[in-house]
Each structure stands twice: as structure tokens, then as C-alpha cells.
Write a structure and sequence with these properties.
The chain is built from 6 helices and 7 strands, in the order αβααααββββββα. It is α+β, with helices and mostly antiparallel strands.
């Protein structure tokens, strides 16, 4: 379960002991909203801020690893007969499988219901504006659903003690839905708002917290 520092901080910001807590993230890229809707919501960030080291590694991969891969593969691609055989094989394979499913075919890319004007869309527009870290702590009480964020870019889900509430909903306005016994590492749950819009999150940190959280909302 959540470490003592997290529990102590949760109790302080809530004014009571939480029923269940879990760290989570928006597990898929946020779709691009209409410009006027984005502007009206304050033009907040639609992506998490990555650590500078990730940009360095990405640059090295693009300028060092990719050229080496191309140098190795180009001579093979130029061999007579190789491309013709590969083309026929690929065409037959595509014909047998049919068109692949795409996340973009789902409403809102599978992240939310797709309507930016409803509660879920508005919450999503402001998700990354609260903190440079993508992690959010969802805290359930007997009559509220609260979402908290830490001002730090990097945090430890077991020891974070500086998070603050960035969104709070009475239980009458939002219901948290999810199934217990989901595979660890792939578990998700949804915020179902009173206007019928929904927002899905995943990447649940701390397996024990995730299991307890899902059992609580699933019961």
C-alpha cells in the first residue's frame, strides 16, 4: 500500500482518510482539439514534459543509430529479386488480414468520449497544465473524487509528499469505473461524469494500491 508519507499527505489535503488512492497517467496521446476549444481552455499543454536526457538520447538515436541501420540494410535491399518477392509476400499478407484497427477510429482516440465541450474533454484539456509530471494521484473519499498533482517533474509514487488537489468532484458528478483483477501493467479505469462523458487513465503505479483501488471501485 501507499507509503506513510503519501498517506499522511493525502490525509492532510483531504481533511480525512482516503478510501483508496492510486497514481495514474493518461496512457495514450491526447488527440488534437479544435483550436478555438483549446484557446478557450487556456492553451494548456497536451503532452507531458520529458526529462532533457530523453531528448539527448533521441537525438543520438536519430543521428547515430539510424544511419548505421541504413548502412547495414541498403545493400540487402539492392539485391536482385529480394524486393519483388517481399512485395508479393506483403501484398498477400495484407489481403488475408484486412485493414488493421486504429485507435483513431475510436471516439476520442480511446482516451475520452470525443466531445471536448463536455466534462471529460474539459478535464483532459487541463490535465498536463497542473504539473510537469504526467502522474496524478486519484483519491477517493466517501463522497468525493479528488485528483492531485506534484509540482516536481520527477517524483517517487511511494514517497511523494508535496502533491496538491488540482480537481475535485462530488460523487454525484463523477463515478469511477473499473474492473478488479486486471493484468498488472495493463489495468485502466474511467471517470464517468454526470453528463455521460468519460475519460480513461492507466499506467497505475504501485501494484498493491492499484489492486486495492480497483477492488474498491469494482465492488
Amino acid at each position: 500500500m501507499a507509503k506513510r508519507a503519501v498517506r499522511r499527505r493525502a490525509r492532510k489535503v483531504l481533511g480525512e482518510d482516503p478510501v483508496a488512492v492510486v497514481w495514474c497517467e493518461v496512457a495514450r496521446p491526447i488527440p488534437v482539439p479544435p483550436k478555438d476549444v483549446h484557446r478557450a481552455a487556456g492553451n494548456g499543454r497536451l503532452k507531458s514534459r520529458h526529462h532533457w536526457l530523453l531528448y539527448v538520447l533521441g537525438t543520438l538515436f536519430f543521428f547515430v543509430v539510424v544511419p548505421l541501420m541504413l548502412i547495414e540494410k541498403v545493400p540487402r535491399l539492392l539485391e536482385p529479386g529480394r524486393n519483388r518477392g517481399r512485395s508479393r509476400s506483403s501484398s498477400a499478407s495484407r489481403g488475408s488480414r484486412g485493414a488493421p484497427a486504429r485507435d483513431g477510429d475510436e471516439p476520442g482516440g480511446g482516451v475520452f468520449d470525443g466531445d471536448w465541450h463536455l466534462a471529460a474533454g474539459q478535464a483532459l484539456l487541463r490535465w498536463y497544465g497542473h504539473s510537469p509530471s504526467p502522474k496524478r494521484l486519484v483519491m477517493l473519499t466517501r463522497d468525493r473524487v479528488c485528483v492531485a498533482a506534484s509540482p516536481r517533474r520527477r517524483l517517487s509514487p511511494t514517497r511523494a509528499d508535496d502533491f496538491r488537489i488540482v480537481a475535485e468532484y462530488p460523487s454525484a458528478e463523477v463515478r469511477v469505473e473499473g474492473e478488479a483483477d486486471q493484468p498488472r501493467g495493463f489495468a485502466t479505469f474511467r471517470f464517468r461524469f454526470a453528463d455521460a462523458s468519460w475519460l480513461e487513465v492507466g499506467r497505475l503505479a504501485e501494484p498493491d494500491d492499484a489492486d486495492h483501488f480497483l477492488r474498491t471501485i469494482g465492488g
